[in-house]
Amino acid sequence: MTRRTDAHPDLTRPEVGAPFFSTWRVGTPSRQKRTVEAIARTWEGRPWPAGDLLGYHVYTGHDGSTLLHHSQWRGERAYESFVRTHRQERVDEIDTAVPGIERLGLGRYRRYRSVRREGDPRVPGCVVIVDVEFEGPDPERQRAWVDAVLEALDAEPNPHPGGISAHFHLSTDGTRVLNYAEWESAQAHADALAAPGDGVGSATELWHRVQNWPGLKGSTVSRYDHALGLVPA
């Protein structure tokens, strides 16, 4: 069966071989709420679809328009089997409840590196997604850029106390990096962005190198609240 949970996902679970992220545009805060409710009804009314699906989480965007979806699979073959056998009936039921959902595509990733304060007991009050795009596929460049970010974080002279963790994922097509960052609150993240420097980091040479990396095409930053967690019962 399917069980609802308020717990945030563990991004470092070693069993997760295929973490996926996708975004839906639904238009308004009321439609965000209705869509989350429709997803919950649809999934809770059916058996858990696959033993290799470890968790499915939905987040409401602070833009009042989007939903972020994060699913944790043991491997891509299990996901493909789900698509063939179970996905469409769920999509149809959700679309009947909330017509006009715009699905913006599925991103396939592998987690590369994570950083978290040891023993930090805080529950995230906000999830920040940093989506970084490069000019063309280059897996070595993906890894090197993340390594440079973590070097800059490690040397950061003014670390903001509101940051809890950062989990860097590399897209399987070699073109993107997604940082799933947990923050104490949205205000803590806003305060960090407002501090001196370009972005969360201070105006150091290491951060300058990160921000001017060869082949870096652009990035977006989006804030979300964890709205729904679904796991096998």
Automatic annotation (TrEMBL):
One Pfam family matching this protein: ABM
Single GO MF descriptor: monooxygenase activity
Keywords for this protein: Monooxygenase, Oxidoreductase
Transmembrane intervals: none
SUPFAM superfamilies: Dimeric alpha+beta barrel (SSF54909)
Domain ABM: 128-195
Signal peptide: none
Protein name: Antibiotic biosynthesis monooxygenase
